[in-house]
Write a structure and sequence with these properties.
By secondary structure, this protein is α/β, with parallel strands linked by helices. The protein folds into two domains: about 10-100 and about 300-365, no CATH class; about 105-295, Rossmann fold (3-Layer(aba) Sandwich), CATH 3.40.50. Helices cover about 20% and strands about 30% of the residues. The chain contains nine helices and 22 strands. Strands 13-12-11-14-15-16 form a six-stranded mixed β-sheet, sandwiched between helices. The model is unreliable at about 1-40 and about 330-335 (pLDDT under 50).
Length: about 375
């Protein structure tokens, strides 16, 4: 899984300013007026406050320096703190976002074995080809991270071979394919073929196979690899793809050719940000890594919500600021007047399958 980390955040009661790519520097003043009646006119430097949390959400506790009131909070809380000691403090957040949830997956490979693919774009070399290497890698990675089942459909002008159902292991899948096929080796099924490219037949057979194996609480994914436009042009499969996308995710890979408009715009599903689940690769050596990355379930959209307790909050979309698991974004600000009773924070995100995750934290003021 691609891991999106909630790296280092500074969340200020009076204000926060952006630092470098992985940290944020507080922008509160050096001193503020103490709000307690006894020291109403005395300025002070507010106590520091660090809040450490992660996906485990273990028991919450706080460590407080008796001399300075500088504090470190662990876990989501709710934590009980003295408002008068922390007015104007930066709340420094450190944490790690949850991984995408492990979901039960049905993964179907729909593989182009037309003449152009087998003789030019991805020929068989040393009893393998890029398409076969890609299938093996996706199965290996997916099987390591949860409950996954796999199926295969190969097509050219018509469907050539297909598995009879979905299987939990590569050995079971390949054994079934060979039992259904006239070909003698698995590399001949995946790497050899002739004639034209018919998306329609490949997608329709894939839809039938997924539908026959559909179960509650399993997400279904179809991965189509091709190197050219459909021939005849009417065999594009757009209508079938539209039906499939109602129940399953379609991800597409175009090998070598730039004739990928149909796959990208009409066949592929969209991710949470509205971008097609489509990749174009230059050569077959890139297929294995590309398809493995495309099949990963990762966090796609992220938001940070914050508010004074009992007050209307604000939400910032931080998806566009995430880079290699780290993020930075413009200033966020929660005024003291909005945090009369405390501060509530929620980190919301969704994975590629639309599953939602939340991390919540809360500080309650004692005075």
């Amino acid at each position: 899984m691609k891991e999106v980390k909630l790296v280092i955040l500074f969340f200020a009661v009076t204000g926060v300013s952006c630092g470098d790519k992985t940290s944020f520097n507080g922008s509160s003043p050096e001193g503020v007026a103490d709000v307690t009646p006894e020291t109403k006119d005395v300025t002070r430097k507010p106590a520091s406050l660090t809040w450490k949390w992660d996906c485990s959400e273990e028991n919450s506790y706080a460590e407080v320096d008796d001399q300075t009131s500088d504090s470190v909070l662990y876990g989501p809380g709710p934590h009980q703190l003295s408002r008068s000691k922390f007015v104007g403090s930066d709340i420094h957040f450190e944490g790690q976002a949850c991984n995408a949830k492990s979901v039960k997956r049905d993964i179907l490979f729909v593989i182009d074995i037309s003449s152009s693919m087998t003789s030019g774009s991805d020929p068989k070399v040393n009893d393998t080809c890029g398409r076969l290497d890609a299938i093996k890698k996706v199965i290996a990675v997916s099987a390591e991270h949860g409950d996954a089942r796999f199926g295969i459909v190969t097509f050219a002008s018509f469907v050539s071979d297909q598995s009879s159902q979905l299987f939990a292991s590569q050995d079971e899948l390949f054994e079934d394919l060979l039992a259904q096929s006239k070909k003698k080796k698995i590399e001949d099924i995946i790497c050899d073929g002739t004639t034209n490219t018919n998306y329609e037949d490949g997608l329709r057979t894939g839809f039938d196979l997924l539908s026959a194996n559909a179960e509650d609480f399993r997400v279904q994914e179809l991965y189509l690899i091709s190197d050219g436009r459909p021939v005849p042009s009417s065999s594009h499969g757009k209508a079938v793809a539209e039906v499939i996308r109602e129940k399953a995710t379609i991800a597409t890979v175009m090998l070598g050719s730039d004739n990928d408009g149909i796959l990208r715009n009409d066949i592929a599903s969209e991710d949470q940000a509205g971008n097609p689940l489509h990749v174009r690769v230059e050569n077959s050596q890139q297929l294995a890594d590309t398809l493995a990355t495309l099949s990963e379930n990762y966090i796609e959209s992220s938001e940070l919500s914050f508010a004074g307790v009992g007050k209307e909050g604000k939400t910032i979309d931080i998806s566009n600021y995430i880079s290699s698991g780290s993020f930075s974004f413009d200033d966020i600000r929660v005024g003291v007047e909005d945090a009369v009773d405390g501060v509530a924070v929620q980190f919301n995100y969704k994975d590629r399958h639309g599953n939602s995750y939340n991390q919540n934290g809360k500080i309650n003021w004692l005075d």
